[in-house]
Amino acid sequence: MESQAPARRHPLARGMTLLETMVAAALATIILGAAAALLLAGGRVVHNTEHVADSHDHARLAGEQLLSAVRQAGAGMSEGLWVVSAGTALRINPIFGGDGAGTGQLAATTTGNVPGTDGSDDLWLVVPDRNYLGRDCAPGAAMTVVQPGTGALQVNCVGTPSGAAPATPMLVASNMKSAALLTQTSVTSSPPTATVNYLESGVPGFSNAPHKGGFQRGDLVYPARVLHFFIGAHPTTGRKALMRAEGRPGTDAAGRPFMDMGDPVVLQDFVEDFQVAFGVDATNSGDAASYVFQHGLKPEYTPGLRSVRISVVATGRTPRRDTQNQAVLSEDLPIAVENHAPAPVPPDGYFRSLFSRRAELPNLASASL
């Protein structure tokens, strides 16, 4: 019987030693740690990039809304706007504002016309209804004076202001040079004419052309709003925001002829500074390069007001983070704009974006009519 060769033995499979296991675990920990650090760093970059984009958007949106209102203001008021303040007729600018460093009539005010303390400016505008040059009697369109005088106005028909009626309806009566702001009390319609009654009726010297003895046939009468822009605290977050209040004739705390007549609305969140510079063509040269810009403009009529420079500073919603995941970056500080240099404060992690644009005021240039 043939003998069989002994079966060839295979080495047994060997498991990992404790040392090998520890080395593999250490390598895996290093790799996972590096991946986590890379992921967190990428997250911080994305967060910071979004924060910067946020602040750019907030500044741009606030600035564009302000410029839109500025470009509409003053239509038909190139030679000033007559208002009644404390029973006296005054000729004022339809665009004026306080300086954060000013006092008296040049003091900037906030909610309820309280003088501001943070260095921001404020801005007052008299803005006609957008539809005032539409067809007669359309919502918001102008009516035409058919009988001259200083008392109740006789107009060709009555138009209804577009949108929700304000708490204090106001009208502008204009000869397309000078104008008068009327606080409407009632309108009595008797087609094809109507009678417009207003609070200022009978005040000596009050009309769009007092040297002519009152309102004249052919004057336009159209709805208008008084708008007050300023920096205030957001009612929910407490963060600074660009606010807008509706105004009405009345002497405010700074001695100006308008005051807020209700709670303001938040126009744009996360706006911490608002600065305005007013460009005056004092020599009537018509050369935009020669305008003299000033900080703050009193309401008293100023010939030659031709331009406004709007600047706003905004932040993002949340602070940026540095490489140690701290919500503070040394360069994230308030910035100086126009004549406002904020007081030194510790870095807060909020990136600041500045929007600054200059707008010409064609409504205040008589040659453009």
Automatic annotation (TrEMBL):
Coiled-coil intervals, chain numbering: none
Keyword terms of this UniProt record: Membrane, Transmembrane, Transmembrane helix
Matches recorded under InterPro entries: N_methyl_site, PilW
GO biological process entries: type IV pilus assembly
Keyword Membrane: yes
Residues passing through the membrane, by range: 21-41
Name under which the protein is recorded: Prepilin-type cleavage/methylation domain-containing protein
